[in-house]
Amino acid sequence: MRARWAEARRTDVPQRQADPYPDRVAHDDGAVSYRFALRPLWILSHLFVLACIVGMFRAGFWQLDRLHQRQELNATVAARATEPPLTLDGAAALVDAVGVEGADFRTVEATGRYLSDEQVLVRNRSQNGSPGYWVLTPLADDASDHVVTVNRGWVPIELVERPDGAELYAPPDGPVTVAGYVRATEEREGLGVEDPPGDLDTLSRVDVDRYDQQVDAELDSYWIQLSLQAPEQAQRVPEAVPLPPPDDGPHLNYAGQWFIFGTLTAIVYPLLLRRRAHKPAERHGVPEQVRDETVGAAP
C-alpha cells in the first residue's frame, strides 16, 4: 500500500522540461555579462567598427589638409596677381631659377603667332557642369625664340563633334597678343590614363613633355592659362578657363561630417554592446519567446 502511495506521489510531481539550449552558459537572468563579446563573430565586428572609426577620423584630417592646401593656393594666387606681368623670357628665367611651382600663377604676356597645325584637345574637361575639351595651341613668340603651350580655353563636346566645329574654335591666323597665367605641367596620378606614343588629336592632360613629343618646335616647360587675347575669337569660343574661386571650398564641412560620423560610431557601438549585455536571452543566444516559455514552465 505504501509503495503505491509513493508511486502516485512521484507521478503527481510536475516534470521540468528539458532545456532546448543545453549548450548555453548558465547565468542568473538578472546578471550583466559581456562574455558574448568574446565570440569570434563579435570580435570581427569590433575590429570592423574600429577600422571604420579610424578611417572616418583619417578622412576628416585629410579634408583639413586639403583645406590648408586650398588656403595656401588662394594666398599664392592673390599675391602673384599683384606682381607685374612677365615676358616669355622673364617667365623662362623665373622657371629656371625657382622651378615651375615657384612661378605658378604668375601673370605673363606675349605677342606671337599660333601654330594651328600643332593644336590638340584635352579630354574630359567640364565647365559650368557641361562636358567638353580644353584647346591647346603652341604660340611662337615674336620677341624671342620661345614657343609656349597656350590653353586657349574650353569648348563643349557638341561643338567638337560638329563637322565644322574645328573651324569655329580655330585660332586667329595673324599675330595675337595673349595674357594669362603660368601653370605647371600636369602629371599622371594613380590610375590615370597614360597617353600612347605617336601624334594624337587628344591628350588626357596638359602634359607638356608628352605634347612636346609631337610638336616640331621645342616647347617651354610650362603652359599658359589664357585670360585675354587680342584679337578675340570671332565665335566667342573657346571660353577662357577661370582660376579656382578664392574660397575655402567644402573641405571644412566635409571634415566636420567625418569627425561627427566617427564620434557617433565610437559612442553608439558601446551602447549597443551594453544593451545586449543587459538582455540575458539575447546574450545567451536564446530567443525571448522561447526563453520565457522555458523559464515559465519550471515550478
Fold and architecture overview:
With 299 residues, this protein is of the alpha+beta class. The chain has nine helices and seven strands. Strands 1-3-4-7-5 form a five-stranded mixed β-barrel.
Produce a short descriptive summary.
With 299 residues, this protein is an alpha+beta fold.
List descriptors.
299 residues, 2 domains, five-stranded mixed barrel, alpha+beta, OB fold (Dihydrolipoamide Acetyltransferase, E2P), elongated
- Give the overall average pLDDT: 84
Content of β-strand:
15-25%
Q: Structurally, how many domains make up the residues? A: 2
Q: Tally of extended strands? A: 7
Task: Provide the gyration radius in Å.
Answer: 36 Å
Task: Give me the CATH fold name of the largest domain.
Answer: OB fold (Dihydrolipoamide Acetyltransferase, E2P)
Q: Helical element count?
A: 9
Sheet with the most strands, sense and barrel status: 5 strands, mixed, barrel
Q: What order do the helices and strands follow? A: HHHEEEEHHEEHEHHH
Query: Low-confidence runs (pLDDT<50, min 5 residues)?
Result: 21-28, 288-299
Q: What is the strand arrangement across the widest sheet? A: 1-3-4-7-5
**What CATH architecture label of the largest domain applies?**
Beta Barrel
User: Given this structure, which CATH class of the largest domain is correct?
Assistant: Mainly Beta
Helix content: 40-55%
Amino-to-carboxy terminus distance:
29 Å
In one word, what is the shape?
elongated
